Amino acid sequence: MSVSAPQRTALIVEDDPDIRELLATTLRMNGFAVVEAASGHDGLAALKEHQPDLITLDLNLPDLDGVEVCRQCRAISDAYIVMVTARQDEIDRLIGLETGADDFIGKPFSPRELSARVSAMFRRPRTGPAPAVQGQPAGNEMLRHNDLVMDVEGRVVTLHGQELALTRIEFDLLETLLTGAQRVWTREALLNRVWGDGWSQDHHLVEVHIRNLRKKLGEDMSNPRFIRTVRGVGYRMMPNDNRS
Prior knowledge:
- The protein is α/β, with parallel strands linked by helices.
- 38% of the residues lie in helices and 20% in strands.
- It has two domains: 115 residues, Rossmann fold (3-Layer(aba) Sandwich), CATH 3.40.50.2300; 96 residues, Winged helix-like DNA-binding domain superfamily/Winged helix DNA-binding domain (Arc Repressor Mutant, subunit A), CATH 1.10.10.
- The strands form three sheets. Strands 2-1-3-4-5 form a five-stranded parallel sheet, sandwiched between helices. Strands 6-7-8-9 form a four-stranded antiparallel sheet, with helices on one face. The protein has a three-stranded antiparallel sheet with strand order 10-12-11.
């Protein structure tokens, strides 16, 4: 007799009742049990009580700033977080911040778009960077480029020996570039590899995440050491100057 997987739970933090209902209906259709909250304080309380697998979080809440709510959520939960905003230009600002969100979506959005983004997120590994364990057996795949080291299985990236705080998307983008270091990756190829099928036209999504990744790598755009833009095509890794 087969045992069905436990139902996933989604927490919707949204003060607009119409948007909240659209989110709830869409997520229920995708198999989620849904918990709703109309404010940041209520959302944080619901997070602690229900331990959801997914959180949709409005940027403009009546009590707390959505970015601050996101940071507090991330401090106590590894749930996937989708930030929702009524202003498209806010998405660039959000991606430039260390919010801990996994994705961003603008209002108005279609239920199909939301479903596609949620499905893509759950196809990526859910666990974050694993803590270092003394005496951990060797064998983890390690990718190296100049002073950059990636532990693929542990999902840890260090630069000059210091761990970088990468989001899941940033880690997956960097891993893709490192594993195909001699390849020029088109924006479409990166979308399909990291976000999944159905994203081939959303090139802007790649560009803003690459921009944020470069900031965390401390890139000098006039003389990059890690990620090179191939104009009109996409991105590739710079030549590795390590001699070891």
